[in-house]
Amino acid sequence: MQRQTQTATYWQELTIEEEDLEHLYELILEEERPRTSEDLALALIEMRCREEEALIKRELERGTLYQPKDSYEVGEKLVFPAFGFALGTVIGVRPGHNPRYGDFKVIQVRFEGEEGTREFVSELAHPHKLNRGKEELLAEALVPPDQLYAQYGQVVREKLVESLRANDEFVSFGDEWFLRGLLSEIHVGHLNIAEAVLDVSGKPLPPEEILKELDLPPRPKEALVFSVNYALAQDERFDEVGPEGRVLWFLRRLEPLQALECPMHLRYQPLPYDRASLDEELLALEGELDDEAADVEAPPEELDSVTIVLTYPHRRAGTIPLTPRTRGFFPRRGRGERTMVTLIDGRTGSPMPGWVVHRHNYVCGLDRWYEEHDLPTGAYIKLERTDDPLAVVVDYLPRRPKSEWVRVAMAVEGRLTFEMRKRIIACEYDELMIVGEEDRTLLDALWLETEREQKPIFEVMCRVFPELAKLNPQGTVHAKTLYSAVNVIKRSPPGPIFAELASRACFVPMGNGYWVYDQRAR
Length: 522
Prior knowledge:
Elements: H1 8-12, H2 18-31, E1 35-36, H3 37-60, E2 64-65, E3 77-80, E4 86-98, E5 102-111, E6 118-122, H4 134-139, H5 145-165, E7 170-173, E8 176-179, H6 188-201, H7 207-211, H8 221-233, E9 238-240, E10 249-251, H9 257-260, H10 280-288, E11 305-309, H11 312-317, E12 319-321, E13 338-345, E14 351-357, E15 362-364, H12 367-372, E16 380-385, E17 391-396, E18 398-412, E19 415-427, E20 436-438, H13 440-452, H14 457-469, E21 477-478, H15 479-486, H16 494-503, E22 507-511, E23 514-517
């Protein structure tokens, strides 16, 4: 006997019926609490399995279960599970014999909807696999619903969620589902109170804290919390900023612009390039750069601290990138696009509000910190874990202030140029990446012009490379230096830049990451 619910085909071809939704409706109504899509999918699987078991039992009760060992009389009705619980009537009995099995009887059976007859053995003394009673038959090859969910739950959930979204009687917050008719009435007055509570607090609050001030009629706590979450989610004033597994609400107007909109210097339109052109050396350099837009897939390591190099786009935006090396220091995404964290100044211990912007893979809130410590592009930034999963120490590697010759970017007559100038540096830095700047307003205008004209990355490189080469007596430029400089006027991860280096004849490798530019071969 093969149950349909025990097959992959059944669940892959599942159609969510109105009866399914009615069952889930009653389930939520009876408990008066929200349920996750996982809960509802498992409940659906359990219901379908129960229905099939009930159908099998009804089919078995229509007649006598056929077993080769038993004796049957003319006119007796038999049920054959191996034929889909077909019902047949015994219309004749004759003797039978087989040298191997001895004497037995043969019954002639006519099935419903069939004109002819079929013959089956009866009173067979020899063991046979069909000699099973109802209880044994029902227990045979029965996979429990939780195991079915483990195998087919994802498919069921996707189909169920699609049906729930199309049904106005169900409402959702994140992955939780509830009934619209069970929502507590939360009017604009309640929402104004919630806004005032968050405004006075000045920090994100869980719905339970907001609920205390709303004076809603008594209901089960889970129903009240869902109602508050659902109402706040429909109002643009509120933003859910909690980490994975936790709901926290805040006011959008209290969030910094960098958390709400991707800063200009971090906006990247993916550039097509031939990744196969990157050799081992270029791939290794790419892995050192910690660019959130790079095609680097490294398994996250559980490190207590990590040190990265500050790039120009993140220096200007007041951010740090979320990469395979840094992501593990920050909470995973919850229901919203942002998660509020605390950034702790490693020099002073002072807390700073930070925002993990999951969609664009950066953490903002460091603009003032960069300015206060006068950190240049190329500075080493260190992240350290704390006991609080929502707090991260941000530090730099200090040293005695010293005047250093560094590359300084300037916009002169509508083009990017570089000069070596002295700057007071009070931190450790990557000599290949460091870039100072002169007149940000002019550099930003050059950035916007480059974006407006949609200049190809190759053209930008051809303009920037000679400017860097003139600073070196050998005329060589390191790939990391070129990456750092290009990002002063055009956002690009290292991949497209390195691919141009590797594939264009005008760029000649000199070894150890250094290149020269031959304008004649352009």
